[in-house]
Amino acid sequence: MNELALEYFFFNLPIYKPVQVTENWDDFIFLLNLGRGHNQQDIEGYNPFRKTESTFGGWSNIKESIEYFTKYGGTDRIGIKCKRYGDVLDFFIHYNADKHILMKVGQFPSVADFHIQELKKYQKVLNKEKLKEFSKGIGLAANGVGIGSFVYLRRIFEHLIWDSFDQHKNDINKDEKEFVTLRMEDKIESLLPGLWHTGRNLSITN
Predict the structure, then answer these.
(1) Contact at 8 Å (CB) between 35 and 73?
(2) d(CA 176, CA 172)
(3) Do 174 and 94 belong together in one domain?
(4) 71 and 18 within one domain
(5) Which pTM was predicted?
(6) pLDDT tens over the chain, length 206 residues
(7) Long-range contacts made by residues 92-100, C-beta under 8 angstroms, separation at least 24?
(8) Do 46 and 88 lie in a common domain?
(9) Which of 101, 129, 138, 186 could cross-link with 96 by S-S, CB 3.0 to 4.6 Å?
């Protein structure tokens, strides 16, 4: 994965995650030029201010030369501007010239803000409590706390498994005492016939 691909860098890369700048040097230079208004390329992403997908372009007034920044490193600012509404998203990067390591050290809005709209997809299958946990998981992942995010996502997954068990326990011929002792992959496998039965009925009625 190219972590300096524009859409990924701006909308998905967690802050403080180090990116080694070696073979992707040209992408690094393109990014710096974008922050100085020298490059214009459409960037597709989510505008959290307007709650809609939109197209962005480079926007900034940085005066410091790229040559100085790449030689000595430091902190830089890159802005991208929504072409539809004019909203500006700000990103702050730090480059260690000795180690050739780049990272985002701040941004507004946050990575979580770009992905919070994904919660809408799951409103029909998750209750309010689980939606809050999902939101926390997204926030932790956005800040590079993968382990903490995994804890919340595992809770949600287990909730869905048990919810499915309650709906299909008559189809799988297992009581709760037996089901709770199964490994997770065995729980999923045992539920497949019940899920298939539901899916088959849905396909017939639809």
Answers:
(1) no
(2) 11
(3) no
(4) yes
(5) 0.69
(6) 899 999 999 999 999 999 999 999 999 999 999 988 887 899 999 999 999 999 999 987 677 789 999 999 999 999 999 999 999 999 999 999 999 999 999 999 998 888 877 777 788 888 888 888 888 777 777 666 667 778 888 888 888 888 888 888 888 878 888 888 988 888 888 887 544 444 444 343 33
(7) 95/21, 95/69, 95/70, 97/70, 97/71, 97/72, 97/73, 98/73, 100/20, 100/21, 100/22
(8) yes
(9) 101
Q: Which two tokens stand for residue 17?
A: 């995650």
- The set of residues, in sequence order, having a beta carbon less than 8 Å from that of 19 and lying 6+ positions away, is 3, 4, 13, 101, 102, 103
Residue whose structure tokens are 């939101």: 135
Report the C-alpha gap between 16 and 13 in whole angstroms. Answer: 9
Residue 183 lies in a domain: yes
Count of beta carbons in the 10 Å neighbourhood of residue 126: 18
Residues 22 and 84 in one domain: yes
Q: Residue 70: what are its φ and ψ, rounded to 5°?
A: -70, -25
Residue 169: CA count within 13 A, CB half-sphere: 12
- Do the beta carbons of residue 136 and residue 36 sit within 8 Å? no
Give the ranges where 45-106 is alpha helix by DSSP (H): 66-72
Of the residues 61, 80, 109, the one at which a domain ends: 109
Helix (H, G, I), strand (E, B) or coil at 123: coil
